[in-house]
Design goal:
The structure is a homodimer of 214-residue chains. Chain A is mainly alpha-helical and 214 residues long. In chain A, 83% of the residues lie in helices and 0% in strands. In chain A, helix 5 packs antiparallel against helix 9, helix 6 crosses helix 7 and helix 8 runs antiparallel to helix 9. Chain A binds a DNA duplex (18 and 18 nucleotides) through helix 1 and helix 3.
Chain lengths: 214, 214
DNA sequence: GTCTATAACGAGATAGAC
DNA sequence: GTCTATCTCGTTATAGAC
């Protein structure tokens, strides 16, 4: 194996090890040693390749998030109504429980409290998801009677933050998190009904919304 | 000062110190020494009074959550429609940014990953909030056309988890979190409109909901 | 009940051999 | 580029003086 390939391999192992360690033990279980053990690599190599543990965490988180978002881009692109978005959200939530990117982001976010370096890396990674969600929301809302009331950018952040919260919750109370998601899904039917109103009811709703909005 | 009073005082200082330390530095910045410093108390007293750091965290979290929930009980009781609930939620979110109980719970939840003892304490504390939210939701939903569609227990968990997520988000991206909340608030107007439909539209909606539900 | 001192260990990080 | 060895510091936890 060439030196370059060996370097790349070690860096990859370390990044994977960092992600796996966060998933398994949370941000407070992360250390240079625990990562190195998971990666099957010498501890000192973390500092040689990344300079510090925080730096490794940041790039690992960013790289893995990029990959996950990339993996979903096509599926996001096909979403054009609320029902499809809900289905995708549910699938994403289940698949990410396996791949674990949402959990990792949640843990990074927790570690970001009082650690500006981690905070910035995490913010950048989260923005990757948010940008994707915002695009879809913008598309869907344009065709909906509530479209002129809603703020896609803000909503995208609210959605992402909720995913974070649910994923974090699931670690301590799996059944509770499941019940919460099921309840939301059930309630989202309401939005679908609104979305599928006939033209008359639709106009009436629009008028009412205009009245309510300040 | 009597011995009992002195004991109580020390325990109180340690619990307050634990909460303050979590708020300031996150769960990964918590240690026996950092807590003791914040509390202005000798480090060894943590082990004398609580046995371990985890034990201290658990009881501190539970005690402070009890107090916060208690402080909101009366205000929860007066809520009888969605608009009032939204207002209370917003107030709670802002006041808790100061008192910090939601942040603490979020950090505890993060620390609970792979630490069953913390997980149990956190779950118990969260349930205090959930129970309160569930009561209100049950009351409101009973009077709403979507009431028979919704699951108050599940919804309460979803709401609480979202609060957690937003609060965690706010540490890394304050503006983003604010935008997210504002967008949700705006959209919630939709639910209010549905809630205030006339009797005819209300019956139509109910019929549609029945059709959608599987 | 509270303190000092200390044991036993894990942390981040670096130096230097290979 | 990777390893071993090591430094320095912070960690949990305990023993024992007061």
């Amino acid at each position: 194996m060439s030196k370059d390939a060996r370097t790349a391999e070690t860096r990859r192992r370390l990044m994977d090890g960092a992600i796996d360690t966060i998933r398994a033990h949370g941000i407070s279980g992360v250390s240079a040693r625990s990562i190195a053990t998971t990666a099957g690599v010498n501890q000192a190599l973390i500092f040689y390749h990344f300079g510090s543990v925080d730096e490794l965490l940041g790039t690992a988180c960013l790289t893995s998030t990029k990959a996950r978002v990339e993996a979903y881009r096509d599926r996001f692109a096909t979403v054009s109504d609320l029902r499809a978005l809900l289905n995708l959200g549910r699938a994403l939530q289940q698949e990410e429980r396996a791949a674990g990117n949402v959990t990792v982001l949640a843990q990074m976010l927790a570690g970001a409290q009082g650690d500006p370096k981690l905070a910035e890396a995490t913010r950048t990674a989260l923005d990757l998801w948010v940008a994707e969600i915002e695009l879809v929301l913008r598309r869907i809302l344009a065709a909906s009677p509530v479209g002129e009331l809603a703020d896609p950018a803000g909503l995208a952040r609210a959605v992402a933050a909720s995913f974070i919260g649910v994923e974090l919750w699931a670690a301590a109370d799996p059944q509770g998190a499941e019940d919460g998601l099921a309840a939301l899904e059930q309630l989202a039917v309401l939005a679908e009904v609104v979305d599928n109103l006939g033209p008359v009811a639709r106009r009436a709703l629009k008028a009412k919304l205009r009245g309510v909005r300040q």
